[in-house]
Design goal:
Layout: E1 5-9, H1 18-31, E2 37-41, H2 47-53, E3 61-63, H3 70-79, E4 84-88, H4 94-101, E5 106-111, H5 115-130, E6 135-142, H6 147-156, E7 162-167, H7 170-176, H8 182-185, H9 190-205
Parallel strand pairs: 1-4, 1-5, 2-3, 2-4, 5-6, 6-7
Helix pairs in contact: 1-2, 1-9
């Protein structure tokens, strides 16, 4: 069986929504029929692991192991027929992030719209480009109507494509506390729509979804 495709969520700044988006994208991919999907947690603060332990649904699956175990784990998961592995990474530790990024087929870089976030994102982008990995940004927990968000969107466009805007919504906090996602808690809500759009972008870039007519794939 082929090696599963690997989506890595990476940012050298903490608190930008990596874990939340890892969980949400894993569930979104599974709900869209692209499973089996496996989540993998490489953050020493194992928030994703704890979220998954609270989860009642059996999917997406969860694989245990550290960064050094990743090559063997990916081989094993491929043999088991897994199609997608979504990996959460630690903030700040450059060597650890780089070691995970080496296995990525696509990298999603979450960031918020503050000045410190904009400064930090350049370091992550430099690392991703050094490894020649395709990537896009997700601007997280923003108020879409503010000038600050508009300015951040323009600034990010100088570094790479923007996959989606994820608004500040209480449901994301609620989902973090009970092992579910916005799509499961409020399937017809605006947060569910945001995540569906984000997965639509990422899934297209990773080859799970056919691009819409006239839409160019990111290279």
């Amino acid at each position: 069986m082929d090696r599963p495709r690997v989506l890595v969520l990476a940012s050298q700044k903490g608190g930008v929504g990596k874990t939340a988006l890892t969980a949400h994208l894993g569930v979104a991919a599974d709900l869209a029929g692209f499973g089996p999907v496996v989540l993998y947690d490489t953050d020493p603060q194992p928030s994703l692991t704890e979220w998954w332990k609270d989860r009642e649904a059996p999917e997406p699956r969860f694989a245990k192991g550290g960064i050094a175990d990743l090559p063997l784990v990916l081989d094993r998961l491929g043999q088991a027929g897994v199609r997608l592995v979504v990996i959460d990474t630690p903030p700040a530790n450059t060597d650890s992030i780089r070691a995970v990024l080496a296995h990525a087929d696509f990298v999603l870089v979450p960031c918020q719209d503050g000045k410190t976030d904009m400064r930090a994102v350049t370091k992550t982008v430099a690392m991703v480009r050094e490894l020649k990995k395709p990537f896009a940004f997700a601007l997280t927990f923003v108020n879409r109507r503010t000038g600050q968000t508009a300015d951040a969107t323009r600034l990010l466009s100088h570094y790479g494509p923007l996959a989606a805007l994820v608004s500040y919504r209480v449901i994301y906090k609620k989902s973090a506390n009970d092992g579910r996602t916005a799509q499961e808690l409020e399937p017809n809500g605006p947060a569910a729509q945001e995540i569906a759009e984000l997965w639509g972008y990422v899934g297209t870039q990773m080859g799970f979804i056919e691009p819409a007519r006239g839409e160019k794939e990111f290279v």
